[in-house]
Design a protein that fits this description.
Radius of gyration: 20 Å
Bound molecules: glycine
Number of strands: 11
Low-confidence stretches: none
Largest sheet: 7 strands, mixed
Number of domains: 2
Helix content: 40-55%
CATH class of the largest domain: Mainly Alpha
Strand content: 15-25%
Oligomer: single chain
Structural class: alpha/beta
CATH topology of the largest domain: Dehydroquinate synthase-like, alpha domain
């Protein structure tokens, strides 16, 4: 088993990575929530038929009384109505402050269940069991939990670290190819921002079977980078912003596609390519970098550019949570393997995006 420890003072927790780990969920949760008798397990309608039984069997065998809460699959469930449904359901179940919430699913389930765990009874123990590659390498680690508001995604939330993150690579086998490759966009991001050797390692493995053959190493490397970043900047006021590489522009593409045409990972893939081109035009990024990133992402079947008009860029840049007043911090690369925050006026960013992007 591979183990990483996120060493936040007073809120330290482990990330465990091992094939077959889902079957050990009960004993692993028992180790971090020794006083708990009830567990509210939150999942979605896609994951429930696949992994309900192994999770509940394992929790029950470890002596927990577990109740499953199922939300409809999809981003639409990350809302105040589902959050309220969970709060009321947890109370009906009789959850107390020594009990816990377990999230079994992708980013939507983790974010929603995590926010419910952070707020019910002013906070109960929380365990993440991510079932998508995207959630395993990104959203399950680092404690960002949230719901969406009409004004945008993740606008109501908290920093609430889990007590444990359990990663069973075997659950990735039930993802379809686009779901798997969506997660690979975030995996490639870690190579771009932190580890050129890892970027090369990935480019030598452009197919799902090749990637799955080394999946423990891939998960470990991504989570180790995220662990280091989050340990230094839990509250996202400095270094953590580098995890946003490709995301501001990715949000523009998600918006341009009305959140249905492009998945988050696809939008981030195109966003990283655009950020690399932006870096070249600002004299920060070497000229050969965009092509290398485009080749890596294209070989995984991910988009390297997405049409977007100036108004949509402006809307996405304007609502970026990393922005302050008239400025935005763009995350650029000064080489593959190193990200640099670059503060600039929002208006300049939008103008530059227009200059190297064909605006319909
Ligand atoms: N997903 C970016 C972060 O956790 O900061």
């Amino acid at each position: 088993m591979k183990t990483l420890t996120v060493a936040l003072p007073g809120r330290e927790y482990d990330i465990l990575i091992q094939r077959g780990l889902l079957a050990q969920a009960g004993e692993r949760v028992r180790a971090v929530l020794p006083q708990a008798s009830k567990l509210a397990a939150v999942t979605d309608s896609n994951v429930e038929p696949l992994y309900r039984k192994p999770l509940l069997d394992s929790l029950t065998a470890a002596g927990f009384e577990a109740r499953l809460f199922v939300v409809p699959a999809g981003e639409k469930s990350k809302n105040a109505a589902q959050l309220s449904r969970l709060w009321e359901g947890f109370m009906d179940f009789g959850l107390t402050r020594t009990d816990g919430v377990v999230a079994l699913g992708g980013g939507v389930v983790g974010d929603l269940a995590g926010f419910a765990a952070a707020t019910v009874l002013r906070g109960v123990g929380f365990v993440q069991i991510p079932t998508t590659l995207l959630a395993q390498v990104d959203s399950s680690v680092g404690g960002k939990v949230a719901i969406d508001l009409n004004a945008g995604k993740n606008l109501a939330g908290a920093f609430y670290q889990p007590r444990l993150v359990l990663m069973d690579p075997n659950v990735l086998n039930t993802l379809n190819l686009p779901q798997f490759m969506e997660g690979m966009a975030e995996v490639v991001k870690y190579g771009c921002i932190w580890d050129a050797g890892f970027f090369e390692f990935l480019t030598a493995r452009p197919s799902r079977p090749e990637l799955m053959a080394d999946i423990e190493h891939i998960l470990y490397t991504c989570c180790d980078i995220k662990r280091q970043v989050v340990t230094e900047d839990e509250l996202d006021t400095g270094l953590r912003m580098i995890l946003n590489f490709g995301h501001t522009l990715g949000h523009a593409y998600e918006l341009a596609g009305h959140y249905t045409q492009w998945s988050h990972g696809e939008a981030v893939a195109a966003g990283m390519c655009a950020a690399a081109r932006l870096g070249v035009s600002l004299g920060v990024t070497p000229a050969d970098v965009p092509g290398k990133i485009e080749d890596a992402l294209a070989s995984l079947g991910l988009p390297t550019s997405i049409p977007c008009d100036a108004a949509t860029y402006a809307a996405a840049v304007g609502r970026d949570k990393k922005g302050t007043g008239a400025d935005v911090t763009a995350i650029l690369l000064d080489k593959i393997g190193r990200a640099v925050p670059y503060k600039m006026p929002k208006a300049q960013l939008v103008r530059l995006l227009g200059s190297f992007h064909k605006i319909p």
